[in-house]
User: Which sequence fits this backbone?
């Protein structure tokens, strides 16, 4: 029911926002001059096609100190929530450090890649909180990663077509919706945890003489599991076959993007390479859909209530189509914003019944692939300064690891996995505020400068 209300909120508001852009008058032929700037989502262009670039020097000053603190906190909380933090990094790098929006988006990807890689490394050394399975759900990763990468390609293309104010409005609508839904989800989980803790307290008082207690199954198994060494846990969490499939998708998209960058926009080969992304993404997604659908149907027919993977939903065709659309939407937002797509994937995993620890680990695992794809491409195109990128990645790696360590220890003490959900909601809400402030300020400047505020042609604006 909550998902239906979320869709009823997003569809009308998105439709009104997009349709309103069509009422913006089209520019006249002599509207542009050689000195007029055209500003889009993550790209700032001159009318002759050259792009402005502003790279501050990496030197110790108050800007670096503030950016370090914000980057550390954003990376730490962002990876714990499974959303990355791109909605915080891009405004920070533009407003505080002084980068242009195009370079800020590229550096944001570097920070997300560093934080998510450190988070994955930490999670590979952690056992599943209540089952004898890897903490990374590889089935969900294979289901969402191809659609996420396909969506990122769409989002990057739309970022130079959609007017800046419209992107800002769409992001605010989406972020407010997902953050609100995640917040209420966290409240529900908090209440459930409170009831469980009260039940455990009663059982403590009525424990038998041998001290046998009922243990909360959200954090500990009913049957004690044999202790594993850190190396055994690490090897158990690795599934090389699934990782190879994810790497295949990653390499395929990377090669297509690299080749596409050397082609003339809107040429025949340009469209051929764009369309080649569809069989790559849909092939892996379709294989995983068939696997989940077949296994789910088999278990329902045999009366087995156990879910196929971590998601507590039935893998019917409508649910699979819904997941595909959400994956594409998450990637599109990531392409528009310069984030890793976790702002959709994190809340979605919680919505389909994945427990917070696994949702966070799986979302950061998928983001590691999507963000690293962009980083490699940006590096080949020389879109960011190497010293700054290495410094920010170093900060993000530290934050990703220590953020996971601190929050997981806190959850173990308080027995409150809902903390992850509240962190996720807070990061998305903070991103909505920062993107809203930056977007509003920039849109006002564009209005004062009498810049064009409508849609642009795809081929002419690339």
Assistant:
């Amino acid at each position: 029911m909550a998902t239906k209300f979320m869709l009823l909120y997003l569809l009308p508001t998105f439709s009104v926002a997009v349709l309103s852009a069509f009422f913006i008058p089209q520019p006249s032929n002599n509207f542009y001059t050689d000195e007029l700037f055209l500003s889009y989502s993550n790209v700032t262009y001159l009318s002759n096609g050259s792009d402005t670039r502003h790279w501050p020097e990496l030197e110790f000053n108050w800007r670096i100190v503030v950016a370090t603190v914000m980057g550390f906190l954003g990376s730490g909380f962002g990876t714990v929530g499974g959303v990355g933090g791109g909605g915080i990094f891009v405004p920070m790098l533009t407003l505080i450090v002084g980068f242009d929006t195009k370079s800020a988006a590229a550096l944001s990807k570097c920070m997300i890649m560093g934080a998510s890689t450190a988070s994955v490394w930490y999670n590979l050394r952690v056992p599943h909180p209540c089952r004898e399975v890897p903490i990374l759900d590889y089935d969900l990763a294979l289901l969402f990663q191809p659609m996420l990468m396909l969506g990122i390609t769409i989002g990057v293309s739309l970022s130079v077509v959609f007017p800046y104010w419209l992107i800002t409005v769409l992001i605010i609508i989406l972020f407010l919706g997902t953050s609100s839904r995640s917040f209420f989800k966290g409240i529900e989980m908090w209440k459930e945890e409170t009831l469980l803790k009260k039940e455990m307290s009663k059982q403590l008082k009525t424990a038998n003489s041998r001290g046998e207690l009922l243990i909360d199954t959200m954090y500990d198994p009913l049957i004690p599991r044999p202790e594993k060494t850190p190396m055994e846990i690490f090897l158990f969490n690795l599934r090389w076959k699934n990782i190879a499939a994810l790497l295949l998708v990653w390499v395929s998209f990377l090669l297509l993007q690299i080749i596409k960058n050397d082609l003339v926009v809107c040429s025949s080969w340009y469209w051929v390479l764009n369309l080649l992304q569809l069989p790559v993404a849909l092939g892996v997604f379709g294989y995983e859909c068939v696997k989940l659908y077949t296994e789910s149907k088999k278990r329902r027919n045999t009366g087995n209530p156990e879910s196929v993977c971590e998601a507590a939903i039935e893998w019917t065709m409508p649910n699979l189509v819904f997941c595909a659309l959400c994956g594409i939407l998450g990637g599109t937002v990531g392409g528009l914003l310069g984030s890793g797509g976790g702002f959709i994937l994190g809340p979605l995993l919680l919505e389909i019944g994945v427990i917070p620890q696994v949702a966070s680990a799986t979302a950061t695992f998928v983001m590691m692939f999507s963000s690293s794809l962009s980083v490699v491409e940006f590096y080949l195109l020389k879109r960011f300064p190497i010293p700054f990128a290495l410094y920010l990645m170093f900060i993000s790696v530290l934050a990703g690891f220590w953020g996971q360590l601190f929050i997981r220890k806190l959850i173990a003490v308080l027995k409150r996995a809902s903390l992850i959900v509240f962190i996720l909601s807070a990061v998305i809400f903070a991103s909505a505020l920062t993107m809203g402030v930056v977007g509003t300020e920039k849109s006002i400047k564009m209005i004062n400068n009498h810049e064009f505020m409508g849609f642009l042609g795809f081929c002419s604006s690339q």
